[in-house]
Every structure is written in structure tokens, then in C-alpha cells.
Design a protein that fits this description.
116 residues, three-stranded antiparallel sheet, elongated, 5 helices, Arc Repressor Mutant, subunit A, alpha+beta
């Protein structure tokens, strides 16, 4: 797993609501309206979080037609394994392309203030 993929996955899982969404989808696929009702949130908010989970490869969505012709978006948990060890993190860090300039900043140096 690349460093960028690891960052996307960890960022997607860093939200309590997204963890609840993953837990709600763990038993099997569900459509957005039903999932929103179960979680007690609006569909637009749910879609916002599902997009982040999908971009991280944690869920997959499919659009299907119901028997009465309505379009229904179903989501399910995508198969994944996440194993974090110091070695995995070190290897992933070596492949980072996003946030390359981010990282530990050098300590601020004490400079005397100029007095007029």
C-alpha cells in the first residue's frame, strides 16, 4: 500500500460518523435512504461521507433500478485488510507524493528582537 493510499484510508476512518457508517454496512449492502434512516442523518450528509469512504477504497457503490423503476444507490463494504506496523508505516512514508512539504518543522530559533 502506498503512503498516499494509507493516508486516504486513515483520514476516511478518522471520523466517528464514518466508523458508524462502516459498522452499519458490515452486515451487508444497503441503499442510501435506508442507511440514512438507520443512522439518523440526512442523505446529503451521508453521501458526503460515503464519497470519502469510496475514494479511500473502503466502500463500493452501485446504482440499481427497483422493480418500480426508481434508481437506488446501494453501498457495501469493499474487501480490505489494514495492518499497521512500524515497518508498514516506514515503507508507506517512502512512497508519499501528497503532502510532501508537510512534516516535522524544525524548532524555531530564538532571534533577538530589534529595539528601536
Amino acid at each position: 500500500m502506498s503512503g498516499d493510499e494509507l493516508l486516504r484510508m486513515l483520514a476516511a476512518l478518522a471520523s466517528p460518523l464514518r466508523l458508524r457508517i462502516m459498522a452499519a454496512l458490515a452486515p451487508g449492502r444497503n441503499y442510501v435512504s435506508q442507511l440514512a434512516r438507520e443512522l439518523g442523518i440526512s442523505r446529503p450528509l451521508l453521501y458526503l461521507h460515503l464519497r470519502q469512504l469510496e475514494a479511500a477504497g473502503l466502500v463500493a457503490g452501485t446504482l440499481e433500478l427497483s422493480p418500480d423503476g426508481k434508481a437506488m444507490k446501494y453501498f457495501k463494504v469493499a474487501p480490505f485488510v489494514l495492518e499497521l506496523t512500524p515497518a508498514v508505516i516506514a515503507e508507506a512514508a517512502g512512497t508519499l507524493t501528497e503532502h510532501e512539504s508537510a512534516g516535522p518543522r524544525p524548532p524555531a530559533q530564538d532571534t533577538p528582537e530589534e529595539v528601536p
